[in-house]
Amino acid sequence: MSSVRSAPAKDPFPAREDALRLQAGLHDDPFSALGPHMVGRRRIVAVFLPGAATLEALVEGKAHPLTRRADAPDLFTGAVPGKGGYRLRATDGTGQAWEFDDPYRFGPVIGEMDEYLLGEGTHRRIWQVLGAHVRSHEGVAGTHFAVWAPNARRVSVVGPFNAWDGRRAPMRRRGTTGVWEIFLPGIGEGACYKYEILGADGTVQPLKADPVGFGAEHPPKTASVVRDIAGYGWRDDAWMTYRAGNNARTAPISVYEVHLGSWRRKADEGNRPLSYKEAAEELVDYAADMGFTHLEFLPLSEHPFDGSWGYQPVGLFAPTVRHGPPHEFRDLVDAAHRKGLGVILDWVPAHFPSDPHGLERFDGTALYEHADPREGFHHDWNTLIYNYGRTEVANFLYSNALYWLEEYHIDGLRVDAVASMLYRDYSRKAGEWVPNVHGGRENLEAIAMLQRMNEVAYGEVPGVMTVAEESTSFPGVSRPVDMGGLGFGYKWNMGWMNDTLDYIAREPVHRKFHHHQLTFGLLYAFSENFILPISHDEVVHGKGSMLAKMPGSDWEKFANLRAYYGFMWGHPGKKLLFMGQEFAQRAEWDRAAELDWGVLGAEWHSGMQRLVRDLNTLYRATPALHVKDCEADGFRWIEANAAEISVYAWLRQGQEGDPPVAIVCNLTPVERSGVRLGLPQAGRWREVMNTDAAIYGGGNRGNLGGVVAEEVAHQGLPASAELTLPPLSVLYLMPGED
Question: Which pathway is this protein assigned to (predicted)?
Fold first, then answer.
């Protein structure tokens, strides 16, 4: 049924003032002046249609001419009989005719409960109401548009379908919610659109992309694109059933971090990156073969600048179209799940760019950001900071987190730059920041938003994980919110990463003076649920590749790196490597080129790749190496103080009955024989990992597959064995026969 509104019995309708405001694009209540209205006993229809020569309403096949208004030449009005629906038929100056439905004859779409929650700023699933939704309304197919712009005088949907003319589709204001909506019949999947917003001061803003848009044009174009994200046929039931166990603190978690635009490229097709569907085969198969448990993608939400790697997003609800449309991104996630891989997305609530089509001064005011640059501008990245204290903005962010988890079956969110959110004085000098209400430096509003995000994520989607990239000693990052923490599942261990990389980059002759850079991390290793991250940040901006960081000759570089990975996989904490590090890419990461896969033709590189695969396999298969990654009783030092010879040894222990693993590191280029190592039991101990093995490119030195421990107490343990430690190597020993 059409929505017929009553109007005062006056002539003409709409009033001259309304007609002039419509013509000028200044009307803030277009539904009061357009569409069907009862004027006295007659139904008058008013239609604003620039470019039309004639216009008539069609009711049950009969045409009823509408007359052009003299005071507003693009406005047509006339009496249309009946109370039901009608269509419109127009002609242009050439006589070309077209038919369409009048958007102003349709009633509202947003219901009372949604309106209440939006107005309150507590709608957990704003994407189900805001954005562009392909749907049928009152029996007609089209798209419903809704956007939050509380300080606007007028908001219009514009696109090629209405010549980007903001006068043609002004929206309906929904009470005091700040939300505007309109149903546009005939608009469907693939339509480009933006919002034209008339600010409170009467200034037309730059055309804005939809903050809750599900798709976007390929950059450098900037329009949003209508995408129907309903109805995907997921085939990952088995994964979803057991996901909670795969993300648990006791699970083996080894993450392969990927920048999808540069993992592989199609050189014979203009050097383009892989599509989501191609990655669903090539990348998923590779990561599964390498033994990783999770894929982690640098941000895949829409972003205007390739060089930001996705960390300056504009379309938080849109998977970037660089690799395909939304359903094809779902194909990638679905394929990963069916191969037993979890999917983690980088999520960026810390800042957003000032591109004119984005969120900056969205409705002519500092809406999403702070007005004061001391609170609302990041000098490090030349970006804007969300106003976390505004209820609707916090709602926008935590609802976006839930969106990825629910709509795309994402298994985890890694939250970027958390430290920059926690502190008001982050990277600021005195006088450049505003204290909180208590006079302190903590950003209480950001803290509350992060806590709320974690509560919603874990409360609404059981089995997921959230991960904080947090570079300070802020307490309780991975402690539950109800215990005073931020509520994250895991935290990147940035201190461990910095200390260990600094150590391993030193010439071995100097390492004895820095011995405790490798032991210091155990003083706090169980204060949080840690992930050990060797991420993209360590191989860019002149830092060189992982291989390039290593000292010495080529042989020593590879041996050092193999030993470092052996140390890392034996250390408490979940694991993360950035792509290319698993085969010791020589060059620093270049986001515009694919990884240097050609080096795998060389033995040392293929050996490194085999080592990482075997480390992952051993880590996953050996409970002692993962079930107590986050528990202090899963670790015991055997030797922590042999600084003169740069030797370290420790035990990893699982649950009762799990065989322990002894890990021994020799981080000098000198083979050491007759080194006595304390062990928890006598008998045969197998050498289950030797980073100096020939299959990894090493010298094949060691203990001929194992040692026999005697009942000779040593280093506080009841048994011990003599070992040969190859140069620059790590050994893993487990009790039992071969």
Answer: Glycan biosynthesis; glycogen biosynthesis
Residue 1 has pLDDT above 60, yes or no: no
Cα dihedral 621, 627, 629, 630 in deg (nearest 10): 160
**Hunting for tokens 């050097």 — which residue is that?**
271
Structure confidence by residue, pLDDT tens digits, 152-176: 999 999 999 999 999 999 999 998 9
Q: Is 658 a catalytic residue?
A: no
pTM listed for this prediction = 0.95
CB within 8 A of 722, min separation 6: which ones?
673, 674, 675, 676, 677, 707
The set of residues, in sequence order, having a beta carbon less than 8 Å from that of 508 and lying 6+ positions away, is: 551, 552, 646, 667, 668, 669, 728
Question: What is the full DSSP assignment across 376-417?
Answer: HEETTTTEE-B-TTSHHHHHHHHHHHHHHHHHS---EEEETT
- Count Cβ neighbours within 10 Å for each residue of 133-146 and write b for 16 or more, e otherwise: bbeebbebebbbbb
What are the residues whose beta carbons fall under 8 Å from the beta carbon of 164, sequence distance 6 or more?
A: 158, 194, 196, 207
Which residue is catalytic, options 469, 594, 687, 692?
A: 469
pLDDT higher than 90, residue 405 = yes
Nearest partner of 481 among 452, 459, 461, judged by Cα:
452
The number of angstroms, rounded, from the C-alpha of 228 to the middle of its chain's C-alpha atoms is 20
Residue 721: phi and psi, rounded to 5, are -145, 155
Taking only the tens place, the pLDDT of each residue in 513-567 is: 999 999 999 999 999 999 999 999 999 999 999 999 999 999 999 999 999 999 9
457, containing H or E segment: helix 444-460
Rg (CA), the chain: 31
Whole-number Å distance between alpha carbons of 232 and 227:
12
Token digits of residue 593? 């080129």
Tokens found for residue 496: 């461990």
**H or E element: which one contains 155?**
strand 154-158
> Cα(379)–Cα(460) distance, rounded to whole angstroms?
35
Model confidence pLDDT, tens digit, residues 187-203? 999 999 999 999 999 99
Phi, psi of 119 (to 5 degrees): -65, -35
**Residue 564 and residue 519 in contact, taking contact as beta carbons nearer than 8 Å:** no
Candidates 416, 538, 594, 692; catalytic one = 416
Which tokens belong to 246? 């795969």
Q: Is 558 helix (H, G, I), strand (E, B) or coil?
A: helix
Instruction: Print the SS3 string covering 94-110.
Output: CCCEEEECCHHHCCCCC
Known catalytic membership, residue 499: no
Average pLDDT along the chain: 96
Cα gap 288→294, rounded to integer Å: 9
Separation in Å, CA 126 to CA 1, 76, 345, 642, 659: 27, 36, 20, 58, 50
